[in-house]
Specification:
alpha+beta; Glutaredoxin; 9 helices
Length: about 200
Amino acid sequence: MKSLAITNEVLTKALDYDSYTKLIGDLFSENRTTNDDNSESQLNYTKLNIQRASRWEKRAKLNENLKEVVNKINNDQIWLVITEGWCGDAAQILPFINKISELNEKIELKLILRDQHPEVMDEFLTDGSRSIPKVVVLNKENLDVLGSWGPRPKAVHEDYVKKRRDPDYDNKKAAEELHLWYARDKGKTIQAEFKEFLESLN
């Protein structure tokens, strides 16, 4: 599959993981968010996410089965992540994706902001929604799309969406339960599902 929106220009302007992390921190120090929705709630989410991502950057451990699959990748790939600094799922997931990408020099991780690239996001919707983070794996040579993964593990995605659509279920409670799941799971499910995803690309 070929993406009409993912061009060399988009990829040239994309950020590496460290630059993305620094951008979030720099903006937050100015009471700003990555999409300039500088409301108190978005700033609070950003603050929480900086803490969440930092914790996983220090503590995340990758399992051997996943490492084995990643080390077998022998074609040059770009992993393009569509994300935002205020996104709670991104803070829980991207530190793992970054560590996974670092296992193999054939993989180049790049990140773009969803609201700056709606044309890219709209090619990778989830049930019609602009849900993030989304990892798009590209063949580096010709930019063919090999597959995409996200916005969160299937094991928890359906339950979370169901709760959010239930008018009698408090949205704040649904989000708290989701992040409690991430904390307890410690990235095991993210790794298991991402391993299956990578295997499906071969």
